[in-house]
């Protein structure tokens, strides 16, 4: 049995266990962080050895293609940045920092699997492996808000898993296989027999997966969990978990429903409009930066679903590129928020007043990321939105593109509120804000990512196009 | 060469970000990195070949070559863009001089000013629609911060209003660009090549609206103009100079290069609407001016009126009218830039811009007073100054096509003369109304130097407009032929 295709995941789980064991012996917790971050080089190298390999392994439970490998790398980078960004935060739960790092790593292993399987049971296992650690992480801070966040996340994750399982069961019943490719082959015939069941499966799957990507109307948990969870965990949720959800959704629907006579892109088009619009409008009135970013991430889910709604490989490529750009951008924004709240002890936008005077670089970094979220050059977000909307226009989804660009424009109103506080208002105290070295490193890497993805957008799009083509090739 | 012009201010901004916050050093860097592009621009002007209608000083590097997209880094100037590019370079330099006395967070201020200037240069140099849009968008955030941090009055409100208006406009424009790209099916964002295909009439009718929207907000065209009085009034002096002087022109330039030239049938279809809106702009702007008590707001509304003439010239679409429209953009950039700089000085010395509180200032500050009279006369279209030539050409070119609007435009000139002369009379002549004004001083050298340059340019174009119109007419005939006029 050839285990090499999942060696990255295996080594990642091994790293997580190593961190927990070392936690017993190591006094200096910085060492632990170092081990966790540096250890990520092992799965990264193992993933690198897989580049160029395509095929189905381990009884068709694991597949390798450019798509899977692309996402494996992105999740590893996201995990590394979140770990670095947690350096100060773990002080708040001193006793659990080993567990904290390990849970992040375990969840990353689940996400990596999510991107590289197309078999129902493996999908479910990967999903749970990614999700359950997140629920624990959300509650690790042990205050009332964190408790609420963790419970809410756990319950709704469970509920959505139930929907998902139910949908998967119907698909299995219709086609007699758990392999998405086989399902894709069997569905056209099955749909002729029992169209109602197919429609129901589709609805259940959308509901189950909609939770992971916080698409409206499955977004209710998002603001509360984002606000209550420790901020690095929020960053992880909003970036890596959402990406994993989309990585799965894209593969799932383009594979299983590729030939089914059912208009699933339209479902995502509708959800896209709802998510963009609701996310943006509710974000207008937020006063807490984490809640604001939560609604912004709901809106982002809306933009990303435009890529699904196109249902083409250009749309899929746009989606993948957007996810990459969004990963750096949103991580950067959250890491800046982590650094700021560590110093000023608040997540209220009002308390960001005059930050540009107290911490010019931090304020600039956050502004740069917000500008990228808004989609203004010279940032990754600009190309990402341009490319995504282009996919919709090319596909003739003019109405969706128009709603998208308008939404994107009005979102300026709330992103700029944060910039306004930092630059336009006078500081309440002149005390400078200091940032610890690991957090600064993570922030620098994210901001550099936002800029570099802009500068090298086109070579990167070459990669995302290859990744998206590998989805559509069968 | 053009790349250097665009990038030099950015280099300056980066240098400013790292040098020690020394007042003189900051200004020196800002001057150098706006003066160098200006000198390069003058070199372009000197070596511009008037026999070549197409773009010159072209730099074209393939940037994107992927499945569905071809984007080039493609810059170049022709008769249409060169005058406006030069105007931007000149105003960028003068804006630094006008900002000499900024003391609050001056390092950040000059950084943003330089980035703003670079992005506007990029807009006028870009010949690839993607690149054009990219530069178009870069400008928004620096402008927001410039108005928001260094502005006066309700600056935060005005800054956000500017931001949201501009972004909604450009969002629709983005949609239009993408739609155009995929429908034209050329696989290129090359604006000139897109300006050579003949798109289906029905498509032009729709894409025209999407494309022009962003430019109409910028110009601005009634009823999308409401951001302008707020932004211009509340912005710091030099930023008002740039806003009125060059940023509005991005709208007019974009309409010609990016809309009319690409969708000429659409332009014909909507010409009645555009002319009607132009008349509203012209008349409404002028009438509102009669009612203003804030001197700066008055100049702001006069911009709406004057940009209406530009729209009228574009809508008329004849060679003469279009020449007038482009010349009007250059001329108005200078005149309004000068007026805003003067208003800024008056405010700095007298600490008020309210016309009823001012009076008799010419006796106390003769240099400012007489320069204001000069700029005012230029604005109302006194023959011999640049505004007259431009507006005259627009009326001349519009009358054969749209006689009634042209006549309405001419009549408005009388109103313009009325509000300007009346304002000048109340502010600078008559008795001094307040004791505080008895002791106001006149302009210092650094203050009147940029004004003298403005005045010189206005007179130069007024006396001998051909050195500008000849450049414009190198390229315009192509456009006019495409319009079938």
Provide a descriptive summary of the structure in words.
Chain A is an all-alpha fold. Chain A has 21 helices and 2 strands. Chain A has helices at residues 7-25, 29-39, 41-50, 66-85, 97-115, 120-138, 144-175, 180-193, 195-212, 221-228, 231-256, 264-283, 289-310, 313-344, 355-358, 360-374, 380-394, 398-410, 412-424, 437-455, 457-472, and strands spanning 55-57, 62-64. Chain A has a two-stranded antiparallel sheet. Chain B folds into 2 domains: 1-262, no CATH class; 264-485, no CATH class. Chain B is 74% helix and 4% strand. Chain B contains 20 helices and 2 strands. Chain B has helices at 2-18, 23-46, 81-98, 106-125, 129-138, 140-150, 155-184, 191-194, 201-218, 227-234, 237-260, 264-290, 295-316, 319-350, 361-364, 366-379, 386-398, 403-428, 445-463, 466-483, and strands spanning 56-65, 70-77. In chain B, helix 4 runs antiparallel to helix 6 (140-150) and helix 16 (366-379) packs antiparallel against helix 18. Chain B starts with a helix and ends with a helix. The model of chain B has no long low-confidence stretch (mean pLDDT 93).
pLDDT averaged over residues of chain A = 91
- pLDDT averaged over residues of chain B: 93
Major beta sheet of chain B, specifics?
2 strands, antiparallel
Q: Globular, elongated, flat, extended or rod-shaped: what is the shape of chain A?
A: globular
The helix-and-strand class of chain B reads mainly alpha
> If strands are numbered along the chain, what order do they take across the biggest sheet of chain A?
1-2
Percentage of residues in strands of chain A: under 5%
What brief labels describe this structure?
A: 474 residues, mainly alpha, two-stranded antiparallel ribbon, B: 485 residues, 2 domains, 20 helices, 2 strands, 74% helix, globular
In short:
The complex is a heterodimer of chains A (474) and B (485). Chain A is mostly helical. Chain A contains 21 helices and 2 strands.
